[in-house]
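Design review, sub-item: ligand-bound model
Attendees: FS, YL, KQ
YL presented the inputs for the magnesium ion complex:
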Amino acid sequence: MLSGMGVSGRIVMGTAVKLESEQLSELDKYLERTEEDIILITPELTVQDVIKFDRYPVVGFVTETGGFNSHLAILARRMELTAVLSVPGCMDFVTDGDYLILDGIEGNLVVNPRRITIENYQKIIQKLCEDDNRIRSLVGKDTVTKDGFQVCLMGNIDNETDAGKVCENGGEGVGLFRTENLYTVRESLPTEEEQFEIYRKIAEKMDGKPITIRTLDAGGDHPISYLEMEQEENPFLGCRGIRYSFRRSDIFKTQCRAILRASAYGKFRILLPMLSSLAELRRARTIIALIREELDQQKIAYDRELPVGVMIETPAAVWLADHFAKEADFLSIGTNDLTQYTIAADRGNKQIAKLYSHYHPAVLRSIEHVVKCCRKENTPVSICGEAAGDARLLPLLFLYGVDELSVSPTAILQTRQQIRSLDLRQYRGILASMNNLSTIEETESCLDAFSATI
Ligand code: PEP
Ligand code: MG
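KQ shared the predicted structure:
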């Protein structure tokens, strides 16, 4: 048995297909004729590789690299693929055609298991299916703790299909539409009309529920091949998110115009990624105001109250949160990047995976501070990073006073179940205790100690 980091999915069984990195560009050649369930073993994968898996019977994958909150792991969760990352030597231990059990919960890979092992795993899979069916009864129920504290629980999406999944799973809206996918799955920029149609169709599906569209977060680990973006030494600290939007304001304007037009058909919100100064919010707002004038002149309808919000992903944004909370219509804390930038630890780098943790007291204090600033100004605040779906953190997020949580569509019901079983009265005193903690480990022990008393 090999072990790594279980980042997504449940437990699957299938046949190994081993591919070297250079073979990944020819998936058709290796996967097309296979009908049995495939578990792909490969040194490294990109988001662009994984997006293509839905054409093949791939049920899971194993890589030698990657972190829990990398975009790769987030995408695997969204696509309901079972994934175990950071398995050193997986390429050496597995042979093409081996029969595998892949456990995305515990992070284990069993190669050519004995019959008794298969039977044991089949029992676990059966139990997990029964649990899944049971929580379906929570569709349409409130996301409220036992002692009556309610949040709005929404879903993170990458495309129109995901919006359907948010509805099926009883999500109360789209808390984050990562629109990068609209740009990366094609060979040229999507036109205003194409985007408008996609947004309008999502509005139809969401039927009056809020839809938060994050404007293109290009750069970082989202290169867009046809845009010929400059090679950067530190792409995560480079021309990413709003910075790229100002460099290519034509792309930003087209997207905002499409969102504004679609806002005549649903309850849209614009969310700006990767801000580190108020000047960026003001500049984006000026561009949006000009588009509104244009639409007025052309007599095109749009929502005049359309909220413009800011992602809090950088320490600079955290320490300007009092100002952002005054000027923006809402804030959304992107804990994935906030963790990476606060600790200066790459979210996808397995060597420092232990350093990268949203339990780091500096990250938790940042979240607490941002929420406090929002409470003071009465500005809605949500969490849309992976921390929002972390059962251990939920009591703390509630006690800070977060209004909304947005998680992967497949995690909505489980998160709702966890919230409905919480009684915040049992966490009295936890905020005071947290103030005395200085390490990731201390935070984890403190959270566990409070839950253990329940
Ligand atoms: C985040 O950074 O927490 C976030 C939600 O955005 P992304 O994961 O797409 O960077
Ligand atoms: Mg981010």
